[in-house]
Amino acid sequence: MKQNQKYRIIIGGGGTGGHVFPAISIANALREKSPDSEFLFVGAEGKMEMEKVPEAGYRITGLPVAGFQRKLTLKNVSFFFKLWKSMRISRKVIREFKPDIAIGVGGYASGPIVKAAARKGIPVLLQEQNSYAGVTNKILAKSAGRICVAYEGMERYFPAGKIILTGNPVRQNLLLLPAEKEASLVHFGLKTGKPVILLIGGSLGARTLNRSIIAKLSEIGTADVQLIWQSGSYYFEEAKKALEESGIKNVVLLPFIKEMNRAFQVADLIISRAGAGTISELCIVGKPVILVPSPNVAEDHQTSNARALSDRQAAVFIPDREAEEILVPTALKMIGDSEGNKILSENIKKLAMPDSSQRIAGEVIKILESK
Length: 371
Fold this sequence. Notes:
- By secondary structure, the chain is of the alpha/beta class.
- The chain is built from 15 helices and 13 strands.
- It has helices at about 15-35, 50-55, 75-95, 110-120, 135-140, 180-185, 205-215, 215-220, 235-245, 260-265, 275-285, 300-310, 320-335, 340-350, 355-370, and strands at about 10, 40-45, 60-65, 100-105, 125-130, 145-150, 165, 195-200, 225-230, 250-255, 270, 290, 315.
- Helix 7 (about 205-215) crosses helix 13 (about 320-335).
- The relative contact order is 0.12.
């Protein structure tokens, strides 16, 4: 890489943690390779990137852009006005910032800024997190020089010559496990020598996962297991009431887990939704996993993500509609299947790409140096 080269880099996208955290990881990796470079994030007004990006030490500009509703609704009347306004702001941002490259990490917030950059002849790199390509990235693919993906077989959506398999960037603190597992057990108030099931449903929670636990609390209470139950803030009171009424003592209920690396360390089995970022983290953790994809996402992409793992015997896949009945019985059966869990663990580890952000940053630098 050219010594002390200073680049101007725009990163567009956001809306959810699945887009925001990878974007920040890519920026951090680029900053390591090119400390003098200048970064500008572009996201959606009112979304989490407007808080998380400045917390990470980067500038961000917000666009009024919103997602297009697939059903008939009055919200789509304002969609086109917001899109037009976002395109106008994006052209101004490109004109004033004069980026050397535009990176799109997916989500509707990346569309206007990446499109505006491409129209000015600025090189574009896209990052697609899911095994089912998002609408925005499919539209932008013609403008991209490279498309970094996390799954094989993405030639279904993008030109094969542009695709590079890099994996998804993950939160680096997940790789830093505490030295002593015992300390992590104490942190959660758990006993040594008894298997631990970890259920994670995101910061807000997942309705089906919580209802599945509530429906089978009596079975959990009589089993020789311990459960860390992250209910999410939205469902915490409902979960707390059900747990208190059940009287069982082998469940640790939390609205949110701050030290997720400790939770992953003590878990013998993990139950989770199937967002792309979460799956990338679970591959690195390398524990047996049950995936229950959320049906309430665009193009049902979480089901595609889950199938991509279950087809490789790297996870157990349970459809959302069946979870309330069979999730807990399946988990309790799996916790005693050491041979089956060993196979799942070995296979999911094979899919791990812990250096994804470095790989993507490397592709960005190649584009910049070839200009």
